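Dear Dr. H.,

I hope your travels went smoothly. While you were away I took the liberty of generating a structure for the chain from your last submission, since the lab meeting agenda had it listed for discussion. I wanted you to have the full record in hand beforehand rather than looking at slides cold. The sequence, exactly as received, is reproduced here:
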Amino acid sequence: MRKCLLALLTGLILLSDPFISSANQLEQYEGELADIENQIDSVTERDQLINLVVQENKAAKIVRAYRIATTLNNQSIQTGQTALVGETPAVVSVGEKWIDNSTYAFGGGRNEMEISEGLFDCSSFVHWAFDQVGISLGDRTSVTTDTLKTLGDSISPDDVQPGDLVFFDTYKIDGHVGIYAGDGKFIGSQSSTGVAYEDMTTGYWKEKFNGRVRRID
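The corresponding predicted structure, in token form, is as follows:
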């Protein structure tokens, strides 16, 4: 059902003006998704939280469909994800196995069973990706965004390179972390998508990026 919906939305978008209509509608839906995510960060009532999460999941699927359609219009799609410019470091590409094959779980990804099932939060995914290329980021069971932001060297956002850690102020300062992938994008485990590439140059992630960049040698 999910694939049928995605295909239908993609087809409808491509029938319209690919560079004006799709872009405008994508921006609209990204704004709606950002509004929902901001509400989730502050809501405390259980029923309201459940309703917002349901809305978030629906909005995230629509945004994903529009992003895929936009990528198709630019003829730069690569296995369902935007092709990255230049050489992609292994610590970025290694995580692609989990795209559309993982689930965000706060506190997940800290034992072999959870990893085998693709259950990650943002910091455990980053830890896993670096571990795959032989770089230890400390104790897996206690990794957090707060431990990761102290590692490596501080880099100016203007000098960010693929493989650098990028941080975002979401539910708290440095509440989210991902791995910069180049071309204004990062790969990470997001609550609405699981492991996926996201665009830092527009919408929610542009707004939340706090300028913190750490380079792991």
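Two observations you may find useful: The domain at 85-215 is CATH 3.90.1720.10 (endopeptidase fold (from Nostoc punctiforme)). Helices lie at 2-15, 21-42, 46-73, 90-93, 112-116, 122-132, 145-148, 203-208.

With kind regards,
E. W.
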